[in-house]
Each structure stands twice: as C-alpha cells, then as structure tokens.
Amino acid sequence: MAKQKWWGEHDRISFPHVVYSQQFSRSDLDILFQLALIIEKTLKKNKRVDWLWGNIITIMFFQPSTRTYFSFWSAALRLGAQVMASENAGEFSSAAKGETLRDTALVMSDKSDAIIIRHPEIGSAGQMAKFSKVPVINGGDGPGQHPTQALLDYYMIKKQFGKINGLKIAMVGDLLNGRTVRSLCYLLSKYDDVKIIFVSPEQIKMKDDIKDHLTENGIKWIETTDLEAAAASADVIYQTRIQKEWFPDKAEYDEVSGIYIINKDIIKLMPETGIVMHPLPRVNEIKVNVDRSKKAKYFDQAAGGDYIRAALLLCQLNPAKARELLNI
Ligand code: CP
C-alpha cells in the first residue's frame, strides 16, 4: 500500500470527529504536532488564552479516568472554552435509565460544541459520532481504541527524536487488552522503516488484526517474551499495565501479573538515547526509582497530552485561529 507523502498539503485543518487513529494522515499529524508546539509555548507563558471563548465542551465518561478526563478539561479551559462534565455518566446520566448513545448524542449536541466520550463498549464513540451534530472525540472505547492517547504518544516520540521514521519501539505487557497500543500501532503504520517488538506472554499477545495491518503497511514486527533483549535495542520501551479489569478470573490475571517490570537493570540495558514511556496509570510495572532516570519520560508524555488535545480542539472549533498560528 502506498504511503502518504510526508509534508503533505496542509489542506485539512478541521477534524469533524475523532474516532480511530487510522483516520489521521501524516499531514494531519504534522499539523497537530506543529500546532501543539505553538500552544505549549504560548500556554507556558500565558497560562490561558481566549481562542475557544464562547464554546461549551461536554465531557461524558462512562469509565474511570484521571489523565484523559482532566487533560481535555484543562485543555478546554486553557483555550478559553467552558466545560460540562460527567465523570460517572453510566450512573449519573440517563444512560442509567436505559437511554441510548444515539439519543444522548442528539440531546447533548444541542447543548455543546464538542463532545468527548469514554465508554466501555467498542464502537461507542463511533455510534455517538453518527448522530451528533457537533464533533465527537473518542476518549477510549473499551478495548477498542484511544486515538488521543496515540496522538500524545506521537507528540512525545517526535519531540524526543525529531522523527518517527526508522525508530524501533518495544511494546510491553498487556497487548491483548490495551487500547493504547492498538491506536499507537495504527499511527506508527503510517511511517517508514518503523520496527515494533511486541513483548508479552502468550495469554495477552497483540491481536492478529493489528499485526496484519502492520504487515500490510510494510511495518516489520516481531513477538518475543524476552524483555532484556528488546530493551537492548529499542529506542522506546512502551510499557503497559496488565489490565486486571478485563481478565475473566483472578487466577488468569495472577499468572501474568508482574511478569515484566522496568527496573534500573532494564534501564541500563537500553541504548543511551532510549526512553521509557507508559500511558499510565502505573501499578507496579515500572519501579518508582526509575522515575529519576533521564530515560523515564512517562510524566512528560502525560503532560504533553494537554497540548496535543488543545491543538485538536482548536482545529475542530476554531480552524481559522489554527491556520493563523500555523501561518498557512
Ligand atoms: N492514559 C489514560 O488513558 O489514562 P486515564 O485512564 O487516567 O485517562
């Protein structure tokens, strides 16, 4: 399959809905990256701007979250928008009385200018987007996708290395249930000469649909159980939590829990320029004493989420300002 040309035409500045990470082209990603850099620099100086003044953003989360929920909220406030939020919408919205996502979308899109949703069912954000009159952003749909996490992962990696092409990325841990690794694979598949090492036990291997997608897009990948070997050659270790909540019984979780821990010994094996990322939350899969290493980038990664999400909201709700900032 032909890859999209790097530095494509800057003709897409507005994203109607954000549902899957495959929907972004390389030029979309470049626009968002450049805009996020400008927003980061501006907000570090000014804290708050009025570029989204007058907009109301709804955040409806049907699953727990710290980063995504508050990152969108913070991004919206810092751009001057106002926020309506439900952090436990499964219990406190009328979904608890049986209202469908279709009807929720029809109602909430009359009250707001964008809707951000996290929901336990795959396809839920897409379902809402189908009926919403305003942009919908997927903040995680069950074990499906988490496209804005992939965007912030991309932001971290590109800021660190100045490129995506040619990097070797080891994805470690729960690759079966993790939506972040799925969305990141879809983004990485748009680049050239990227190599992915999947490090996991047999029970929680990456699903075939992602491996097939990578192969179809010319991305080389291997599977291994050897974390030390992967660490020795990877530019990025992308560690993930073993997601207890998706295991049908505790015994199965106990078999794999704690199987891969990033500690100081693993850090020493990595190339000098290598970095450790993690979508967070962390339980025990990265030792706290690794946080002091210059290779530990997971908190920087999370912080960058506010800027790339702000860039996305700006493109959706005030594309003229986005164009002005980008000088395009
Ligand atoms: N990375 C991430 O999605 O974290 P939260 O579940 O806290 O939003």
Any overview of this molecule?
There is one protein chain. With 328 residues, the protein is of the alpha/beta class. The protein folds into two domains: 21-145 and 305-326, Aspartate/ornithine carbamoyltransferase (Rossmann fold, 3-Layer(aba) Sandwich); 147-302, 3-Layer(aba) Sandwich (Rossmann fold). The chain is built from 13 helices and nine strands. The protein has helices spanning 26-46, 67-78, 89-92, 101-111, 124-131, 147-161, 179-188, 208-216, 227-233, 250-256, 264-269, 298-317, 319-326, and strands spanning 56-61, 82-86, 114-119, 136-141, 168-172, 195-199, 220-224, 236-239, 275-277. The strands form two sheets. It has a five-stranded parallel sheet with strand order 7-6-5-8-9, with helices on both faces. Strands 2-1-3-4 form a four-stranded parallel sheet, with helices on both faces. β6 (195-199), α8 (208-216) and β7 (220-224) form a beta-alpha-beta unit. The chain is globular, with a radius of gyration of 19 Å. The relative contact order is 0.16. The site of phosphoric acid mono(formamide)ester (CP) has 11 residues, from α2.
